[in-house]
Amino acid sequence: MKSYAWKIYMLTAANFLVGTSEYIIAGILDKVAADLGVSVSAAGQLITVFSLAFAIGTPILMAMTSGVDRRKMLLYSLGIFVVGNAVAFLLPGFSFLMVSRVILALGTGIFFVTAMTVASKLAPSEKQGSAIATIVMGFSTSLVVGVPLGRVVASFYDWKVVFGGIGILGLFAILAVSLLIPKSEAEESMPIRQQLSLLKEPRIIMALMITFFLLTGYSIAYTYITPFLLDITGMSEQGVSIGLLVFGIASLFGSKFGGYSSDKWGVYPTLFGGMLVQATALILIFIAGQSAVFMLPLLVFWSFSAWTSGPTQQFNLVQQAPEAAGVMLSLNSSMLQLAMAAGAGIGGIVIEQISLISISWIGAIGVTVAAATTVVSLRLSRSEARCKAERNVVYNRT
């Protein structure tokens, strides 16, 4: 195996842990709500708080620490991550769990962005899409193994045990990164004001809006997938665990396919095709989601198509401004988390005001808007490329 591949897979394994800490709440949402004496929609706001802290805190912290060695950043972020899990495990009540989600969000955000930045620099240029996809695969694997396993543990023990176990594994991740990941050059410091100046470019704004609409649609449905499977589909505890496992396995293959497709056929065909399939899957879930026989294959259909867009969109943002790859990934991650917060909030309103089953077709609307935004983004990128080509011609003539 190539030398850089080992390092990327090590980062992917650590990314699995931070991904599990983020997504596990959706898998045990009903148990957390029942134990803490809050409604399911209120418990869903734990995802909103996490996402907002991630979105706001990550770019600020990344700007403040841009001059720090990237290996140290990986270790610092994992340390914050361990503290967040300790708070969830040791301290009682809904308020402390909210605090834990904020701490976890900050550690997760720094690690996720730094890991992708390091991976994109370790890999050769023709493999950057696949390298980023492999890092994202760590999050996918957390859906495959972490979320359903957390559901099983929470069913037999207390849900807090899940966070205690993740925290202990986080300590091993710190040791592994310190021993196996080499020092990496720090990036040139870029203040928040300079980061935000990138948003003056319409093509970058439009590219980020793809993330927002896509993840909003996804989050509306996924945040409340466990109560959906229990109450609408009528699955048992074991059935829900199987459903989450099936969803996670499909996301793993979808993420890897997204990186492969980006390298082979291009970013925009992969993005647009995946969105159309995802929107179709969500509509079919609304139509046939009451049957477990249909629901399991539809979960595969939905998850695979949704996760093809993850690494593809990350790679898309790197291409938009390769000289500021870390900043673009940070901005995109913030947009992603804002979308997750918006989706969780909208989903909670839908459950309270309309019905639980409606989250699927309303989520499909968000994904459809993202597909339309992708078309606009492609036109802006092509227009920008033509302008650059014309300027180069003029420059060469002079």
Secondary structure elements and pairings:
Layout: H1 3-27, H2 29-36, H3 40-43, H4 45-64, H5 70-90, H6 94-122, H7 128-156, H8 160-180, H9 192-197, H10 202-222, H11 225-232, H12 237-265, H13 267-288, H14 292-320, H15 325-353, H16 359-397
Descriptive overview:
- The chain has a single domain (3-397), classed as MFS general substrate transporter like domains (Growth Hormone, Chain: A).
- It is globular and about 55 Å long.
- The mean pLDDT is 80.
- The longest helix is centred in the last third of the chain and has 39 residues, at 359-397.
- It is mainly α.
- Helix 1 (3-27) packs antiparallel against helix 6, helix 10 (202-222) runs antiparallel to helix 16 (359-397) and helix 14 packs antiparallel against helix 15.
- The chain is built from 16 helices and no strands.
